[in-house]
Amino acid sequence: MRFSEVIGQDEVKKILTAQVRSGRLPHALLLSGDTGYGTLALALALASYVLCSRQGDNDSCGECSECIKTDKLIHPDLHFSFPVIKKSNGTTTSDTYLKEWLTQLTSEKYFDFNDWLHVIGTDNKQAIIPDDEADNIIRKLSLSAYEGGWKVMIIWLPEKMRTEAANTLLKTLEEPSAKTLFILCAEHPEQMLDTILSRTQRIDVPPLSVEDLAKALMEQRGLDHDTAVSVARVSGGSWLKALKQICDADDSKVMLQSFIQLMRLAYMRDLSGLMKWSEGMVALGREQQKAYLSYMQNMLRENFIYNFGRSELNFMTPQETDFAYKFARFINERNIIRFTEEFAHAQRDVAGNVNGKAIFFNLALKTIILLRA
Ligand SMILES: [Zn+2]
Fold first, then answer.
1. How far is the CA of 32 from the centre of ligand 1 (A)?
2. Overall average pLDDT of the 46-60 stretch
3. How much is the pTM?
4. Nearest-CA neighbor of 51 among 81, 74, 24?
């Protein structure tokens, strides 16, 4: 990974490359920030820059044999340490899960602790950097560099390191061998030992700007400008949160279609169509049914409010607003209260295990009546 592939973070990139160029790179750097801001991506880009044999002013060359090995994650002087789940038999180190780690990094450099737990097949939040790992790190770094240059050790989430391991590692941090670079990527440095912290140079990685997030959403996910900006605004500077917003938005598109279908069929009094709609709802499963019903109550409220012509009171996507333009007039003071009561009632029935088909077909019939109120 090169700096040019890391989303935003121009200031941090400038600091890091300047340190390398001036030969003032500390032997232990702490990149502190949410994983969604890109701490690991920055660590990988820095490793690539340091190991590159034809380093430019601002980035690795991307073409030399060192760069190719770093990019494929097979550079013999690039090492990783990360939280794992201790196996019941034998010694557990990060290497026990190295295959999973490299597979994850090959497919996606932005991921968080929960994503990683999912990759190693557990939801056990007790994943740690185990005691055995410290010796493993020291052994790797005591070998001379294969390529005669730097040795880089990236430690992801060092706050998950057991105290004993951290104490063992401390000695290496105190007396590092020449041309050894530790890059620690921490979300919660306050959970780390002070003795470790005091031996690292801390760089705070800030939340991504709305502009940088929006640009990445357009380039990497094909969003149009307005959607990208509105997603970026509610993502708190985190690329991971932005991606989650897109997934949620896909869900709400499907729910909007179901809402539109119900309202159209009810307006046309299409009973066989409404029967099919009910069957579709029954097929969803209880949790999704509840999500749909709560989405639809929200849509009814939004459409009612739309009639006041005060857009600052509405919170709808462009697609939802399109539908409201034609539909909102059907939701008014004569039916809004009963409408929301009926949908809330259906939601309670779903939770209370009442026959699904009856709930939704009944709701569809009530919708016919209420639309004409
Ligand atoms: Zn290179």
1. 26
2. 96
3. 0.72
4. 74
